[in-house]
Amino acid sequence: MARAAARASSCRPREGGRSSTGPTDDLGAGRSLLVRLAAELEAARRPGPGERFVLEPPADGAPPWSSLSFPTAARGPAAGSTPAGDTSVVSYRVDAVAGRPGVGTLVRREALAPVPASEPPAVPMLAGVRALRMRCLDGGGWHSVWQGDELPRAVEIAIGQDDGHGGTEELTTAVALQAASP
To answer: What radius of gyration, in Å, describes the C-alpha atoms of the chain?
Structure first.
């Protein structure tokens, strides 16, 4: 189980000065997803042949949506179909929603290592995503880009989700990677 959890949660008031009255099912899904991602990161493995730990920042002028791909020993999809002990490569990114500028759906892909030539199907994990910001920690500080054969010491994740009332709720956590070099 992930030791990391949502350490900070804030809700911006919607127009008219009223804030949301409580978490909705979608906001609960955001919290659950953050805990799941933290567990997968805690179980991250050093990349093997053909694998990499990759964090990409948003493109210039694009919504604030980072993307992340990494090998992990965490159990697979929601049904747990990846056998224990196998390494899979998971990736997270936000796909834009047509007709809703700046809003997307966070999708997850998973493939058993080594990664196949074709991209595995995307599984929608969270709707109403306005921001997905991540950064990696090494001995020199935090970085919004990471590409390499080594694991970062930690990953910080922030998910900004539409609260359904004209505002955004941001969930954040930082996860230490157990297999990272000291």
So the answer is: 16
Domain containing 129 equals 24-176
Nearest C-alpha neighbor of 106 from the set 76, 133, 80: 133
Cα–Cα dist 143/134, whole Å: 9
**Is 33 a domain residue?**
yes
Q: Which residues pair with 54 in a beta bridge?
A: 69, 147
Backbone conformation region of residue 2, classed left if phi is above 0, alpha if psi is from -120 to 50, else beta: beta
CA distance 76 to 146: 23
Q: CA 28, CA 123: separation in Å to the nearest integer?
A: 18
Query: Under a CB-based contact definition with an 8 Å cutoff, are residues 177 and 153 in contact?
Result: yes
List, as own/partner pairs, every contact residues 75-82 make where C-beta atoms lie below 8 angstroms and the sequence separation is at least 24, other chains included: 76/110, 77/110, 77/123, 82/110, 82/112
Q: What SS3 state is found at 114?
A: coil
pTM of the entire predicted model: 0.80
Report yes or no on 16 lying in a domain. Answer: no
Our count of domains for the chain comes to: 1
Give Cα separations from 121 to 20, 70, 108, 133, 137 (angstroms): 34, 16, 8, 23, 30
Type of residue found at 143: H
- Residue-wise pLDDT for 55-103, tens only, equals 999 988 899 999 999 999 886 554 344 444 478 889 999 999 999 889 9
